[in-house]
């Protein structure tokens, strides 16, 4: 870049031991809606991770000795500070990730705020177990303590939302953390670091090291002084993390990919089902692990569903993410856009029919967004269950619609993928809803709705979608070590 250009770039720094620290090398970060480099992210490695782990270890004794109430007050203060800057955070998230400003304003940042408030509250309400053995004269009880330095690794799709979903429970429980956000979406994590001191988070409790998975991420997961790793990202990366951390027997929580089915029975209320299924397929450009990508429709309503669904999808506007009327923003990167487009090409080559979107409808973009990574929401029909579009996670604005006849058949087909994260069932028959939900291999099942979350309850996937659950009780258990103590009188 020219001098004038490089001066205009936003340059991030690592946050270690309560201080911003420059790094010796940097990575370019693009604005996905313009295709222009606008930010430089530290390319941290072993050395930076080492410094961050040391800072986190040093901060541990003081932080862990604070009462849950003291920690809770600090978390609430941090939530207030982020909320106060909500608009600035939302603008930054939209620019950095390509998501629409509306989504960032209404989902990403409010949820990041809520994550801190939620765990600030829930940490005050846990009880441990106690049993008695009168004949032995014994009482047993469990005691929980923080584990130590937690390594937290998050993806690019919901940057601050998913990072704070880890930081909040980790520090609420009294751990200190070294976090590594995705190198593609680091800005809001850096902005949050600027608020930590004011919130009262002592130096070293939250350290953020920016950089790639291969360098900074691997240094963190293989560090001997980081006994616990919470990771959200792809199944492939999770395998690598499992291997790299195995020699140290680390505690792992893995929140991974999905290939989520929506099952729509003849008796579904289509006026609710159709707009919700459009949202579940295309919200955040389809870049949510919980997004629907296989829609099974019962034969009796198949053609009506297709017609109404496609008409509804066509109402969604794709374009400049900062335009509040836009529904679909830019995809995260040029490479990812290429990958998603290739899935549509493969489906076509296999004889599937593209009903709307990619390659079928024109995409008109404003002059400033011509080089951005945009793609229209795309619906594919007549695709075989064994096609890669029905088996692999595409993680973009592409959804497949197929027909089914019986309950038994659809359960089998819905379960016939390696993933098991989220499923949606649409029917007005209560008995059927219960039967089907029980038999789906899926960590979450939503019936007659989508993405309604109670953070109290477990979140996570089965099969290749992950190991472990997070939520009020589950996160508390994951981020603490339990001990059973027996007292004899
Ligand atoms: P990714 O696996 O490529 O990267 C995730 C994070 O891991 C990034 O911070 C990356 O830098 C880091 N990383 C990469 N290689 C690493 C390594 N060898 N060691 C340590 N860290 C490494 O995933 P992504 O492309 O950023 O995110 C998309 C994926 O995340 C999708 O598969 C999606 O389904 C999944 N996801 C899952 C959930 C969930 O809760 N289950 C939520 C959101 C996203």
Automatic annotation (TrEMBL):
The active site is at residue 255. CDD domains: ALDH_F8_HMSADH. Residues 25-485 form the Aldehyde dehydrogenase domain. The keyword NAD applies. It catalyses: 2-aminomuconate 6-semialdehyde + NAD(+) + H2O = (2Z,4E)-2-aminomuconate + NADH + 2 H(+). Keywords: Cytoplasm, NAD, Oxidoreductase. It is found in: Cytoplasm. Belongs to the aldehyde dehydrogenase family. This is 2-aminomuconic semialdehyde dehydrogenase. It comes from Eulacestoma nigropectus (wattled ploughbill). The gene is Aldh8a1.
């Amino acid at each position: 870049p020219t001098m004038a250009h490089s001066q205009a770039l936003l340059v991030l720094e690592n946050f270690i031991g309560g201080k911003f620290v420059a790094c010796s090398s940097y990575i370019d970060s693009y604005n996905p809606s313009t295709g222009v480099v606008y930010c430089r992210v530290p390319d941290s490695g072993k050395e930076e991770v080492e410094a961050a782990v040391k800072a986190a270890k040093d901060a541990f004794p003081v932080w862990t000795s604070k009462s849950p109430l003291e920690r809770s007050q600090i978390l609430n203060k941090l939530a207030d500070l982020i909320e106060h800057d909500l608009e600035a955070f939302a603008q930054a998230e939209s620019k950095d990730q390509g998501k629409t400003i509306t989504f960032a304003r209404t989902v990403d940042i409010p949820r990041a705020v809520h994550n801190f408030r939620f765990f600030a509250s829930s940490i005050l309400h846990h009880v441990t177990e106690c049993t008695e053995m009168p004949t032995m004269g014994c009482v047993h009880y469990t005691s929980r303590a923080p584990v130590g330095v937690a390594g937290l690794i998050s993806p690019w799709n919901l940057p601050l939302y998913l990072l704070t979903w880890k930081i909040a429970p980790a520090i609420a429980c009294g751990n200190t953390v070294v976090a590594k956000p995705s190198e593609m979406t680091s800005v809001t994590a850096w902005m949050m670091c600027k608020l930590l001191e004011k919130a009262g988070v002592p130096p070293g409790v939250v350290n953020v090291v920016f950089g790639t998975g291969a360098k900074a991420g691997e240094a963190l997961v293989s560090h001997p002084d980081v006994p616990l790793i919470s990771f959200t990202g792809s199944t492939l990366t999770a395998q690598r993390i499992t291997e790299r951390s195995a020699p140290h027997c680390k505690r792992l929580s893995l929140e991974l990919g999905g290939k989520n089915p929506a099952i729509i029975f003849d008796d579904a209320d289509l006026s609710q089902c159709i707009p919700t299924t459009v949202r579940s397929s295309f919200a955040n450009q389809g870049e949510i692990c919980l997004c629907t990508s296989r829609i099974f429709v019962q034969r009796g309503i198949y053609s009506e569903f297709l017609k109404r669904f496609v008409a509804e999808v066509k109402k969604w506007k794709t374009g400049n993410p900062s335009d509040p009327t836009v529904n679909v923003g830019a995809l995260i990167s040029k490479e990812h856009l290429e990958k998603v487009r290739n899935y549509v090409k493969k489906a076509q080559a296999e004889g599937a029919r593209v009903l709307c979107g990619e390659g079928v409808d024109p995409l008109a973009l404003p002059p400033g967004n011509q080089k951005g990574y945009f793609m229209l929401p795309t619906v594919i029909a007549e695709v075989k269950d064994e096609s890669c579009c029905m088996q692999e996670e595409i993680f973009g604005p592409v959804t497949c619609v197929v027909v089914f006849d019986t309950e038994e058949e659809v359960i089998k087909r819905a379960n016939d993928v390696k993933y098991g994260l989220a499923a949606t069932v649409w029917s007005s028959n209560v008995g059927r809803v219960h039967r089907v939900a029980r038999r789906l291999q899926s960590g979450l099942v939503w019936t007659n709705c989508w993405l309604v979350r109670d953070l109290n309850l477990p979140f996570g996937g089965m099969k290749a979608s992950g190991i472990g659950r997070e939520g009020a009780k589950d996160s508390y258990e994951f981020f603490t070590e339990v001990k059973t103590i027996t007292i004899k009188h």
